[in-house]
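Question (not urgent): is this output format expected?
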Amino acid sequence: MNPRFIISGGGTGGHVFPAIAIANALRKTLPDAEILFVGANGRIEMDKVPQAGYPIEGLWISGLQRRLTTDNLLFPFKVASSLWRSYQIIKQFKPQVAVGVGGYASGPLLQVATMMGIPALIQEQNSYPGITNKLLAKRVQKICVAYDNLGQYFPPEKILLTGNPVRQDIVDLNATRNEALNHFKLSPNRKTLFVTGGSMGAKGLNEGIAAHLAQFKQHNIQVLWQTGKVYYNWATEKVKGYEEWIYPMPFIDRMDLAYIAADGIVSRAGGTISELCLVGKPAILMPSPNVAEDHQTANAMNLVQKNAALMVRDKQAPEHLFEAISAILFDEKQRQQLSTNIKQLAIPNAAERIAQEIIKLLPS
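Got this back:
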């Protein structure tokens, strides 16, 4: 019988792309492995996972909102539906190991899998764990983490510091800077700032960038700006008159080339941090204020305290973001310090480490 693995979670690119990296690492070690993903209907994983060549099943599940909404009223029904659907999927697929990467779908799937006696592993990508992984921690055999000092949240004997999995093209980064600039039709004679609010985009980060368009032009800075699909039309309106310097894009498939082209990066502070560590470019982190337990601020502070990145909050961006951008683009001493320090935090083989731990859970 071929080894069978089920991988659950998603909701954002920060969950999905690490999950795909883990699946690829499993396939590399066990070419005959059968791998099934389980995600949340309507979320990014339902597109990206099939594009990566893996089958996926969807659950009717979403997170709780911080205000009274129809989704919140439906939440108990969604949980019940997802638990039942998870049971059906597991009975049919018969996985030997279940893996959770965080996000809406991992809770119901791993709850059912562990109740059915299937060994399980979760991967926590943040320095402050989400409620789903906290609840699952007592049920699973292994917990792979990307930050130290998580023993206060998880049983210490289950924790393994493996780092966050990163897409292979970002681990390799084998194009030249000129090739990267040419791909995006950028000038080789300007400082290049790469801005990303993640696959969905980020309102506060985007507004912070839009507040400084005149200064980008004045200082001859070109901005490659992943806006997210929701904010793309808004951004294209904002940059009218600045098209020579500002290049908004709804989504960037070739993130490896965007990183190579960049002299500095402005980013949210979720799973992207692991990519930034590998890339080793000076970065400004703008933690999302809209995430559970403010975990992105904890992620960002982990780097700031090591002088490995700068941090600017959304509400500070209209006044202070350009000052930080100037530092990461033009202050050579600070650029070098930030680049050196962030590189020291990189763990390039995280996906392989996690895959090995998953394989250890296979029944002998």
